[in-house]
Amino acid sequence: MNKKREKDWFKNRGYIHFTNKTPLVDKKKILNYVKNSKKVALHSFSPLIFKEIKQRRYKESDFNGVKRRSHKKIKKEQIISNTKIREILYATHIDAHIYSYYSQKIITPKYESTLKTNLKLSEAVTAYRQIETECGLKFKNNIHFAKEVFSEIKKRENCVALVLDIENFFPSLNHKKLKLAWAKILGCKSLPKDHYNIFKSATRFSYVKLNDLKIKNGHFDEKRIAENRKKGKDTFFDNIKELIDSDVIIHKNQKKDNNKKLQGIPQGLPISALLANIYMLSFDETIINKLTEKHNIFYRRYSDDIVVLCEENQIEFVEDFIINQVKKIHLTISKEKTEKILFKKHNNRLQSFKIKKDKTLQFNFPLNYLGFEFYGYQTLIKSKNLAQFYRNMKQSVKRKHKRVEKVKEKYLLDEAPIFKRKVYRLYSFKGIKSRKLPVKGKDYEKKFRGNYIRYAYRASEELEAPEIKRQLRNHWKILQNTLKKYEFSNVDKD
Question: Residue 318: is its pLDDT beyond 50?
Fold first, then answer.
């Protein structure tokens, strides 16, 4: 029997930072520190490390009236890349423990208590929460959340799915509103000193760019890191003073609103997601009270992605209402990402139509939601996610081959073994099942991470969509052809 696992605030983060890692044996000592509100109130938070995650996107774009799929688009009369860039900032280990403890042990219980006062409100907010499944043995994930929306569409049959996205969500949060919402959740007029110190660290933060730490021909100073490790410090610098005295630039949060006041919080902190939900609480309550309760509008919000289901004659009213409510909390809806998908019976089956700007309908255009494409009569994995899976597969095989070629060159070998176990585990049906491995004479069930095939099979069953499995029916053939291309051993040549 599967048992749901509660999140542990103490997490062993593997990355190297400006302060040392905290092993599991130090958990009790760290707990005593983070539970001491006076110490947290005086805690000096270290600079964050900033990095960018780039995701190349191939999507339909408008080129002077001509629609075509491309990696580029025209914006403000300039051709720019479609690449999606996520800015991630992560904290030192001790700072992360403080964020994590306050998030999970202090603030989340109060936030959840607020949501439980209204069942429809609790059901509407899905992201960054641990929501039990009906059996009570697991927590819901994207598959469950997508199923709720798709099932509601099937139930209503004739309806419109209005999909809206908030622009620059985390970097645009208003600090004054966040502070007030935070205090309200705690039941206080103003933030206590320890909470206020954490608030300051998440709004007036400083950071160092990860690339600026690569000071040796585009690489980290491995010699210095090795010397620090000999001292028992898994850090970039011996101490914070050494960082301050170095030539590495320490940046400060410079994102400002129209009134030239600081705004935004870093995406990547253990507390950021919770703060974003708290910030949106007043908006969520308004939508439930004014739209769901009064007009039977189905509402779901997953972080900055909003989906509502309404009647065709309610579209303009609902869209205008949401746009105005978002403006009241100093945020903006992205017009570019707004979509309206009409669902209605056509040829004896539920069919999807995109409502274009000129009010015309585009036949068989799906609702894209949480990694799935819903057409009414069928559900598929999002095509770009599937393409990304195959791209990752091929790049992984290519990297393994490259490493083996270097080994052959270094040791003057004609042949060198190429191990495919990890490739199979990550990119084939062979990795969908857990296996038991002996550890000190005992067996334990190994949890495999990142197997997309396993996730897709689970989605196929949960969504009652066998067509998802059909999408992946050629994955083994594609993997084998890729292995052949790079002359992997033990692969059939015929």
Answer: yes
Q: What is the pLDDT at residue 152?
A: 97
Question: Exposed (0-12), middle (13-18) or buried (19+): which is 72, by Cβ within 10 Å?
Answer: middle
Phi first, then psi: what are they for 393, rounded to 5°?
Answer: -60, -50
> Residue 242's CB: how many other CB atoms inside 10 A?
15
Quick count: other Cβ atoms within 10 Å of Cβ 82?
17
For 151-205, write each residue's pLDDT tens digit.
Answer: 999 999 999 999 999 999 999 999 999 999 999 999 999 999 999 999 999 999 9
For 429-448, the pLDDT digits (tens) are: 887 666 665 555 555 555 55
SS3 97: helix
| Block residue for tokens 């908006």 | 283
Contact present, 67 and 241 (Cβ < 8 Å): no
279 contacts 236 by C-beta, under 8 angstroms? no
Cα–Cα dist 474/257, whole Å: 49
Taking the CA atoms of residue 40, residue 41, residue 43 and residue 44 in that order, the dihedral angle to the nearest 10 degrees is: 150
Per-residue confidence (pLDDT) for residue 489, from 0 to 100: 57
Q: What is the pTM of this model?
A: 0.88
Is residue 42 within 8 Å of residue 197, measured between CB atoms?
Answer: yes
For residue 2, what pLDDT is reported? 47
Q: Are 74 and 62 in contact, with CB atoms under 8 Å apart?
A: yes
Give CA 87 to chain center in angstroms.
12
Instruction: State the Cα–Cα distance between residues 339 and 164, nearest whole angstrom.
Output: 7
Neighbouring C-beta atoms of residue 164, cutoff 10 Å: 22
Q: DSSP of 217-245, one letter per residue?
A: TTB--HHHHHHHHHTT--BSSSSHHHHHH
The one-letter amino acid at 196: Y
What mean pLDDT is predicted for residues 347-353? 94
As a whole number of angstroms, the distance between CA 310 and CA 314 comes to 6
Give the pLDDT of residue 156: 95
Specify the residue for token string 């011996």: 238
